[in-house]
Design brief:
Structural class: alpha/beta
CATH class: Alpha Beta
CATH architecture: 3-Layer(aba) Sandwich
Number of helices: 11
Strand content: 15-25%
Order of helices and strands: EEHEHEHEHHHHHEHEHH
Radius of gyration: 17 Å
Largest sheet: 7 strands, mixed
CATH superfamily: Alpha/Beta hydrolase fold, catalytic domain
Strand order of the largest sheet: 1-3-2-4-5-6-7
Distance between the termini: 43 Å
Number of strands: 7
Length: 265
């Protein structure tokens, strides 16, 4: 399998906070959050995940799995001697799996709609799982077919017309990293890690979901809150799945409030 380097920006001293971005974006999505953490005297570690941002490109058609990023997150945690972890969507999924793999390195989890769809294993979750079919897994052989998949992906998370409303440079970036995004989605959709696996987690955990988000990601947060001991679940009014990016003014203060409680001596 291809080995590609991650671009990682780290600065500051004190307790480490690892920020894990959503699929299709990069560490830049936390550009408003980083100064707030730095002002509190924290060490902030922000990677661009595999193939994303300034990290080495992941070439099509080389296979890729989200578990490759899980292993890299574990490496970062080990290098820092442990960290508080903030994750959004795909980044939240990675945080959960890293916590299972290396629990001693996780100080706390602050997660906004982690896409751990394997926890939707109850019969009453069939409605939520059915909505995921809107994205689909087909990846064509032409640029037009691949862009059609990206459009479905972005519109699922951002609402109808979200792809078209993106700036052209944002669409161009999605096209550039489309293969690794699709492979990440394909493999996380195949993940069968059930909710009870996460019952083993014993670190302070806060789970957030937007009230306007797709039912599948809202339900995941609810299922995780049911099994992770002491987890706190927060519904964020007026925002959707992309709240940490589109409405950072609303979401960031909520993330910070819980995180700083976990940092208190």
């Amino acid at each position: 399998m291809t080995s590609s380097a991650l671009h990682v920006e780290a600065s500051g001293e004190g307790p480490a906070v690892l920020l894990l971005h959503s699929s299709g974006l990069s560490g830049r999505q936390f550009r408003r959050l980083v100064p707030e953490l730095a002002r509190r005297g924290l060490r902030v570690v922000v990677p661009d995940l595999s193939g994303h941002g300034a990290s080495t490109a992941w070439p099509s058609p080389e296979p890729f799995s989200f578990r490759t990023d899980v292993a890299r997150v574990v490496e970062l945690l080990n290098a820092e001697g442990g960290a508080h972890v903030v994750g959004h969507s795909y980044g939240g999924l990675l945080a959960l799996h890293a916590a299972l793999a290396q629990p001693a390195s996780i100080r706390s989890l602050t997660l906004y709609e982690p896409v751990a769809f394997g926890v939707l294993d109850r019969p009453e979750d069939a409605d939520a799982r059915a909505t995921l079919e809107a994205v689909g897994e087909s990846w064509g052989v032409t640029a037009e077919e691949n862009e059609a998949w990206l459009r479905r992906f972005v519109d699922y998370w951002g609402g109808a017309g979200a792809w078209q409303s993106l700036r052209e440079e944002a669409r161009a970036e999605f096209r550039r990293i489309g293969w690794v995004v699709r492979e990440g989605v394909r493999t996380l959709m195949e993940d069968t890690t059930r909710s009870q696996a996460f019952a083993a987690l014993s670190v302070p955990t806060r789970l957030f979901f937007g009230e306007l988000s797709p039912i599948a990601s809202r339900r995941v947060a609810e299922r995780l809150a049911e099994v992770i001991g002491g987890a706190r679940l927060h519904a964020v009014a007026g925002v959707g799945h992309l709240g940490p990016v589109a409405r950072a003014d609303i979401v960031n203060p909520l993330l910070l409030e819980g995180l700083f409680r976990d940092l208190a001596p």
